[in-house]
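Progress against Task 2.4 (sequence-to-structure conversion) is shown through the following example record, which the project officer requested during the mid-term review.
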Amino acid sequence: MSAVCELCFHRCVLNEGQAGLCRARANRGGSIVSLNYGKLTSLALDPIEKKPLARFHPGSLILSVGSFGCNLRCPFCQNYEISMSGAGDLQTVELSPEELVRKAEALRSEGNIGLAYTYNEPLVGCEYVRDCAALIHERGMANVLVTNGTVEEGPWRALLPLIDAANIDLKAFTPGGYRRLGGDLESVKRSIALAVEAGCHVEVTTLLIPGENDGEEEIRALSGWLASLDPDIPLHLSRFFPRYRLTDRPPTPVEEVYHLANVARAELKYVYTGNC
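Structure tokens generated for the chain above:
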């Protein structure tokens, strides 16, 4: 019996035993199940600024956790070893939500403020995020989500009350730019708008790739749209370095990153540069 995964716009139609494009969700007995629930590939106590979050508990640390899988196909992915892998491709450590939250609590004395769901695309394992996040809130700690924002409205609205802060990638500001990544611009815009509406602390990151999304007009349109939601939304403009399958162009010139940051500052109060 086939089943449709309704987590994101791809809406993968899966036969029995088949995994979706994200490699982290599959059809088991006619139901869509998570293949990466509690299966961790990465666990580290990171500075909050590394997410990056510039205006949410600055100077603090957060226990950061990742699994495997992603529902985009970015050729420049920084974490492709885990994001482009599926069940059985990697060595993982299994931790229940209760076990992970105990680790987070144990690190409070070292400055940990909660859990960050990051490294791969956490929303393809949204059930684990949901279960951990509920326990973290019970203990008075914070949940941070680092995501590409490619998720349908229903699952996103259900998760948002548990998320205190999110850094959402806005990888381009043209439909064609997103299609080249296997994504959908309007889905991501909706996710950002809904998170702002829900009162979540939202910061946005755009990786500036030469010849792809680094046009002045595109950045002006992107920052203007964010300002229409809230001019206080922090925007992180990051310098590209050749990575994964996108190695045919040089790093973004530093002066270009600074110039585009100034373009964005005409619309937004808080614009940060990264990797410079």
